[in-house]
Write a structure and sequence with these properties.
By secondary structure, the chain is an alpha+beta fold. The chain has 2 domains: 163 residues, Neutral Protease, domain 2 (Orthogonal Bundle), CATH 1.10.390.10; 211 residues, tricorn interacting facor f3 domain (Immunoglobulin-like). A hairpin with a 4-residue loop joins strand 12 and strand 13. Helix 6 crosses helix 8 and helix 8 packs antiparallel against helix 11. The longest helix is centred in the N-terminal third of the chain and has 19 residues. Bound molecules: arginine and zinc ion. The site of zinc ion has 5 residues, from helix 6.
């Protein structure tokens, strides 16, 4: 929710003031959280069954026939059980979109290249809204029904386990904005001159048919046609652009595996600046209304990319950049792969935060949503490394500030970052700040050298994949040679401000 981010920023600003000026800033007022009791034992958690691999889901509850089963309607995420679908694995999406802000109509053609992990007589994609005019599997018209976000497809011929197949969908309509459990808007969000397109955690079915689960990463080709004069910005590299009959088509290619929530197609009036950063093509798209305010932070983009490349390992993707729009009602920024989306001109902290997510979030991605601290705690910590690098304050300053200014029972500490059980808490201050503090406490506990070795290994070993908190704890124990059970229990799983660890 917008407010969450605003409060977090406010707190950080207070921190900058308190560290850079003499005198201590009062704790910023916080509100809106409900403390919940979610304590648990880390050892029990470590023993908890890990999510099964994609291929082991199904058969679905719906039954099936002699020729195959119905793929599951979801992958069983604890917070978004219907996100994604069972029975197949997507390799690639080829999307052809056309959008006119004047009519708000999106016309789309989606080609989904997938591979069946079991024999299927029926399977689902996730799609919200739109009228479908044509749907084919392997080129043959298929029958389908709609049930909420589930697009249930029955191919003319059943799919055989282990075989590749294609789904093509032609669809049209005014995209419906998706409202999250925390009240924030996502998906295809209209702006005064186009659309701000963001999908965490569940916005992508608002603009294309998708296996909407972070575990099913795929590559993407995204072509977007807009009225000439507008610019459409998507993931990866720009293969080309052409204008015909008053419409300009931008053709983007993302060649690295990408979680569906990181797809974007933000469009509107933009200045698109191309350059190279660390040898990688850079695309910075700025709404002219934001240009002056965004300039100071954007000037730091090369330095930010360099800092995190030096600290964590080489930049994961084949393009870098930023999309700075004027969409203040959205109230948050998002780390869309290769080009984070900003709803307004970012400051250098917000830019550093979203760029650091390219390592932690985009390249190294959670398996299920309750592990969100593996993204947000790491990105918050990265902001503090940026602050340290630029001489503003140290991670320990940040740690001390929050530790000293927020009482043991303050909502700032709740929910424990490893124990998010309510989808409305995914982007809570605790996930960000207590998550970042967990890393600082760990750094102090195991020492600088081991701490940074841990972060580099975590990235190197898991780049382009999916991870869990128990895997992080296990690697931290291996790298440090310490038993960290009590440490992580205190920081990730127990209610209230950790007292000893
Ligand atoms: N991951 C984004 C960030 O870096 C926040 C996304 C918030 N999304 C939402 N639906 N509330 O901070
Ligand atoms: Zn973040």
């Amino acid at each position: 929710m917008a407010m969450t981010r605003g409060i977090r920023r406010g707190v950080l600003l207070a921190l900058v003031v308190s560290v850079t000026a003499a005198g201590s800033a009062a704790a910023a007022p916080l509100g809106g959280w409900q403390p919940q009791s979610r304590g648990s034992d880390v050892a029990a958690r470590l023993k908890q069954q890990q999510p099964a691999p994609l291929s082991s889901y199904g058969p679905g509850g719906g039954g099936g026939g002699a020729t195959g089963v119905f793929g599951d309607a979801g992958l069983g995420d604890p917070l978004f059980p219907l996100a994604g679908n069972g029975g197949y694995d997507v390799r690639h999406y080829a999307l052809g979109l056309s959008y006119d802000p004047a009519t708000t109509i999106l016309d789309g053609t989606a080609l989904v290249l997938a591979s069946a992990t079991e024999s299927l007589s029926r399977f689902d994609l996730d799609l919200r809204g739109f009228t479908i005019s044509d749907l084919r599997v392997d080129g043959r018209p298929a029958s389908y029904t709609r049930d909420g976000q589930e697009l249930q497809i029955t191919p003319a011929r059943p799919l055989r386990a282990g075989r590749p197949f294609t789904v093509s969908v032609r669809y049209s309509g005014t995209p419906e904005v998706i409202i999250d459990p925390d009240g924030s808007a996502e998906g295809w969000v209209p702006t005064s001159d186009g659309a701000f397109v963001v999908g965490e955690p569940q916005g992508s079915p608002g603009w294309f048919p998708v296996n909407d689960n972070p575990r099913d990463k795929a590559t993407y080709d995204i072509a977007v046609s807009v009225p000439a004069g507008l610019t459409a910005v998507s993931n990866g590299v720009l293969l080309g652009q052409f204008t015909r009959k008053g419409k300009t088509t931008y053709v983007w290619h993302e060649g690295a595996p990408m979680a569906s929530y990181l797809a974007t197609a933000t469009l509107g009036v933009f200045d698109l600046q191309r350059s190279r950063i660390e040898g990688i093509p850079s695309y910075v798209a700025v709404d002219p209304s934001q240009a002056a305010d965004a300039a100071p932070a954007l000037a730091q983009l090369p330095e930010i990319v360099k800092l995190f490349s030096d600290t964590y390992g080489r930049y994961p993707f084949d393009a870098v950049g930023a999309i700075v729009d004027d969409a203040p009602d959205v109230g948050y920024a998002l780390e869309s792969q290769t080009k984070p989306n900003f709803d307004r001109a970012p400051d250098d902290f917000t830019l550093a935060h979203e760029i650091s997510h390219q390592w932690f979030g985009d390249a190294v991605t959670l398996t299920t949503w309750p592990d969100i601290w593996l993204h947000e705690g790491f990105a918050t910590y990265s902001e503090w490394l940026w602050a340290d690098h630029t001489g503003q304050f140290t991670p320990q300053d940040a740690f001390d500030y929050y530790y000293d200014n927020f009482a043991a029972d303050d909502p700032l500490w709740s929910p424990p970052p490893g124990a998010v059980t309510d989808a409305s808490d995914l982007f809570s201050n605790s996930v960000y700040l207590r998550g970042g503090m967990t890393l600082q406490a760990l750094r102090v506990k195991i020492g600088d050298a081991r701490f940074f070795t841990l972060l580099r290994r975590w990235y190197a070993q898991n780049r382009y994949g999916n991870v869990t908190t128990p895997e992080f704890i296990a690697l931290a124990e291996r790298v440090s040679g310490q038993d960290l059970t009590a440490f992580f229990d205190a920081w990730l799983y127990q209610e209230g401000r950790p007292a000893s660890w």
